[in-house]
Amino acid sequence: MGSKHLIDLEDFEVSRWESIINLAHNIAKAPQFYFGACHGKILATLFYEPSTRTQLSFQTAMLRLGGRIIGFDNPQNSSVAKGENLKDTVTIMGSYADIMVLRHPYEGAAKAASLYAGCPVINAGDGGHLHPTQTLTDLVTLSMDKGRLDHLKIGLCGDLKNGRTVHSLIKALSHFAGNSFCLISTPELRVPQYVRDIMDARGVSYTEVSSLEDVIGDLDVLYMTRIQRERFASQEEYEQQNSKYILDVKKMQLARPDMIVLHPLPRVDEIEIAVDDDPRARYFAQAKYGVYARMALIMNMLSDPDPKPLSEAQAPSLHCTNPRCITHVEPYLPQLAQQNNRCGFCDHDLAEK
Ligand code: NCD
After folding, report:
1. DSSP string covering 60-102, please?
2. What spacing in Å lies between the alpha carbon of 306 and ligand 1's midpoint?
3. What is the number of the ligand 1 atom nearest to the C-alpha of 165?
């Protein structure tokens, strides 16, 4: 049985990731052969937060498959502005569409939507938590450019605390043998504890460092990220962290000839424009591969007939300790608990009420 929804890439077995990645490779070779694969189907995109690539690559993917699209990219133009809750919005949109893509500022929002949507839900980013389809895009890019997903030394640099693409990518790559991570950030922007716990539990080797120059020469892949301004409590706190890591031509000279640079984009100032001309800069190709990854994902999810039941239990006496969890703003949601007593929506610790 497979998961009907994609909230966390780990909802799918690794073998299912591999078949989606293989399909993406085939689509990249001859996209025209896949036109019509989703004829008659409708994809809904519900974007409660800004997006360029994720939203438009999903829409492009569905249009290239011969399907159609509905949705909003500014909730203020929908009934959300009149006070409609997430449950009602996704219940209705799920009755109009065959598959739904949701981006939301609160952690666990896509999981919440999946309880009510009635159609498959894809998490296109839930606050600072996860971004599984960016990770699929990253895996497709690594398999295309490096020819493998294992035995890679991956440096992740920037806002490792709030960068949801970072959390999803570490979780995914920790399933493949021989990968190790070099986590490059200020002490304030290190990965959340739950991500560190996952690496520890899986015996994955990682180091946490503060200098990009010191480690760039050891890396197979450098994954740069933007400082996530919208997740900071104040502009002042953001400014204290901003512009600490800038990849420039000089630092690229310290890197191996076969190292590749990835970035989920958008870039602010963390990669100098001149680096774009270096053939090792692969972030624009990565964004293009995102369309093939999402075409493959939509085809796969629309053909999965056998949904897996919910794995979390209801825990009415507990509440989530993460103030950015969706359970704090959509109070009708049942509190879901994982077996390790973490929140079933956002992975943070639960506590007695
Ligand atoms: C990322 C996101 O939204 O998390 N962008 C994307 O989807 N490609 C990264 C970011 O916004 O920094």
Report:
1. HHHHHTT-EEEEES-GGGSGGGGT--HHHHHHHHHHH-SEEEE
2. 31
3. 4
Across the range 9-31, mean pLDDT stands at 96
pLDDT score of 307 more than 80: no
273: DSSP letter? G
- Token pair 């490096």 is found at 146
Per-residue burial over 183-202, b = 16 or more CB atoms within 10 Å of its CB, e = otherwise: bbbbeebbbbebbbebbeee
What are 75-92's pLDDT values in tens digits? 998 888 899 999 999 999
Whether residue 3 has its Cβ less than 6 Å from ligand 1: no
What is the band of 305 on the pLDDT scale with cuts at 50, 70, 90?
A: low
Alpha carbons 291 and 27: distance in angstroms, whole number: 10
Q: How far apart are the CA of 51 and the centre of ligand 1, in A?
A: 8
Any ligand 1 atom below 6 A from CB of 131 = yes
Helix (H) or strand (E) holding 155: strand 153-157
Give the whole-number percent of the chain exceeding pLDDT 90: 93
Average pLDDT value for the chain: 96
CA dihedral 213, 216, 218, 223 (to 10 degrees): 150
The SS3 of residue 56 is helix
If one residue of 123, 165, 225, 283 were mutated to test the ligand 1 pocket, choosing by the most ligand atoms within 8 A of its CB, it would be: 165
Q: Give yes or no for residue 125 having a pLDDT over 80.
A: yes
Residue nearest to atom 8 of ligand 1 (CA): 264
Q: Is 54 in the pocket of ligand 1 (CB under 6 A)?
A: yes
